[in-house]
Amino acid sequence: MDILTELFTDYTLRTVALGAALLGISAGALGCFALLRRQSLLGDAISHAALPGIALAFLLTGSKSSLVLILGAGAVGWFGSVLIAALTRRTPITYDTALGILLSVFFGVGLVMLTFIQRMPDANQAGLDSFLFGQAAALMQRDIYVILAIGSVILLLTVAFWKEFKLISFDPDMAETLGLPVRALEHLLTGLFVAAIVIGLQTVGVVLMSALIVAPAAAARQWTNRLGVMVLLAAVFGAVSGVSGAVSSSMAPNLPTGPVIVVVVSMIVGASLLFAPNRGFVFRKIREWKSGRALRVDAVLVDLYTLASQHASADYPHSEQVLNVMSSMSGTAKRTLHLLKTLELAQPIDDQRWSLTPAGEERARRVIEEHYGGGA
Amino acid sequence: MTTDHAIPAEDLAIDVRDLTVAYREKPVLWDVDLQIPDGVLMAIVGPNGAGKTTFIKSVLGLNTPAAGSVLVHGKPYQKNRSQVAYVPQRGSVDWDFPTNVLDVVTMGVYGTIGWFRRPGAAQKAQAIKALAEVGMESLADRQISELSGGQQQRVFLARALVQDADIYLMDEPFQGVDATTERAIVELLRALRERGKTVVVVHHDLQTVPEYFDHVLLLNVRRIAAGPVEDVFTEENLRATYGGRVAFVSALMARKGE
How much is the pLDDT for B71? Predict the structure, then answer.
């Protein structure tokens, strides 16, 4: 029950939560740029490509220190991103194909290397396979320091090059004509992206790390139209999912962290897609329904007005049936008429016939002027 | 054409020599020479696929030509880059990007405010002034995803104005804009010329060329003709540029003769 109390008192748990929060923040923030540059899948390719890097670093050094493994993962992940760019530019292979090839080839090689390492007659090799799905509970104090250091550098550079990153994401050609070193900036951004991915590999795992990159950004985009707010929100979403995933997997034995994080972040994305104002599905539907209703109201008002204009007074009553026939909308005018009554635009004369109120007459005249140029 | 070469290089706004660009071995531009004098309002016309956009992008160093050189006021483009402002095609960016009108226009000064600095009040004021020039100051806080096509175009123009350049290269600014915006852009082009600026515009509507511009480049992979509109905007040159579409050219010329 007292997860919260433990979070603040249990040393291990606090360490794990802090690490997960930091990597959630950097992954979420960098993910925004990836999303806006339409490179969301690049994160997936890089994280999978990093697996042979982890194995290679271990084979070369025999060390399982997270700094060594992160450097290996980073080097090979970066190499993978360069390879994708080169394949796209220099061969007829398209970007998505290059991503697909690289992801599967590097991941396959990584799995072969892991199997090889596990068969080595050395007791030290155990635990590397937790890089597949992540094991937050295995995080040590010094791992957290590594995440803290790299995460701070990522955030610092993102803030420092904010306007340049924004410009190369929105309009790279424009950036070029202003004399900005666009290539170098793109390399820097990709480098930060790789860094944000590799610091999460131990906690989240190579298979699902891209979720922590893409999902918070996609959710954040729903809530705001400003880049700054979007990056902040994505960082918060990333931190929340990172911490809840890491903490719950630490509490339950053998529960891998990556999948739990994905479950949490999916709920955030789902809620954002549905309920965000403006861009959310629910509010969009409500808006559509409201504007549809306004259209129906206006249509019936105009019908009533047109009918009445054939008589001496504008409030001359007409029966529902006539309106049903006139109404080009499907269904009956009854519901709309009752709505008109609530809005005090029309009133029933008896149980069949309706007439416009002065307010309804006024509005009908305005609608006709707007939509029919006053000709009716 | 021979008269162009008589002008000293530093009096030419842009001096393009032997420009050749190829995509996957297919030539898009072939050996194009163009001398653009200072202070002219020049249209670049030609059929689809003639290389008009490629030409502008090559001048701006946005693609790698197979051969050729570009001088801006007598110096390589890279040295005089700040004298040139670019108005790309409207469709070249994602208008759903999370930002507003003022922010996009302010991007025009990113080249001059330096690293690690944010645009301040002075830059914002510049941006507002440029927005006022295109009649958009009331929309400064508007989300860019909510703009109409004409408004998007005017935002791009304002962004170029903020750069305070001598030379403006515009890629189809009249594409898909309403009549109000078209008039506003024409007025802006004339105002720029009055201030001594050089403006080069990729243009699609042949009928308005004599009305809007004083110089024209007829382009179809090769340079067909270039110079003052009254000299080179002839039926013969248009036929050479547009090939078989003779009827359409004759109709245009008949109207021009009226």
Answer: 94
* Segments forming the whole domain that contains residue A240: 2-262
In this complex, is the C-beta atom of B58 within 8 Å of any C-beta atom belonging to chain A? no
- Residues in A touching B57 (Cβ below 8 Å): 173
Q: Across the interface, which of A161, A179, A226 has its CB nearest the CB of B98?
A: A226
Task: Verify that A250 and A318 share a domain, yes or no.
Answer: no
Contact B174, B206 (CB under 8 A): no
Instruction: Write down the residue that tokens 């959630």 correspond to.
Output: A24
Q: Assign residue B84 a region: left if phi > 0, alpha if psi is -120 to 50, beta otherwise?
A: beta
pLDDT digits (tens, 9 = 90+) for B120-163: 999 999 999 999 999 999 999 999 999 999 999 999 999 999 99
DSSP designation for A282: H
Q: Where are the alpha helices (DSSP H) in B92-200?
A: 101-106, 110-113, 121-133, 149-162, 179-194
Q: Residue A236 domain-assigned?
A: yes
Measured distance between the N- and C-terminal CA atoms of chain A, rounded to whole angstroms: 70
pLDDT < 50 positions in chain A: 1, 374-376
- What pLDDT digit, counting tens, does each position of B156-186 carry? 999 999 999 999 999 999 998 888 889 999 9
Average pLDDT over residues B13-29: 91
Q: Which of B56, B87, B93 to mutate to test the interface with A (most CBs of A within 10 A)?
A: B93
Give how many domains chain A has, as a whole number: 2
CATH of the domain at A310: 1.10.10.10
Higher per-residue confidence, A20 vs B10: A20
Query: Are residues A236 and A93 part of one domain?
Result: yes
Look at residue A332 in the predicted model and tell me its pLDDT: 64
Cβ pair B61:A176 closer than 8 A: yes
Are the Cβ atoms of A174 and B60 closer than 8 angstroms? no
Nearest-CA residue of chain B relative to A91?
B24
**Minimal Cα–Cα distance from A184 to chain B, Å?**
14
Please give the Cα distance from A316 to A327 (Å, whole number): 18
CB contact under 8 A, B93 and A170: yes
Q: Are residues A151 and A56 in the same domain?
A: yes
ipTM score of the complex? 0.92
Note whether A196 and A294 are same-domain residues. no
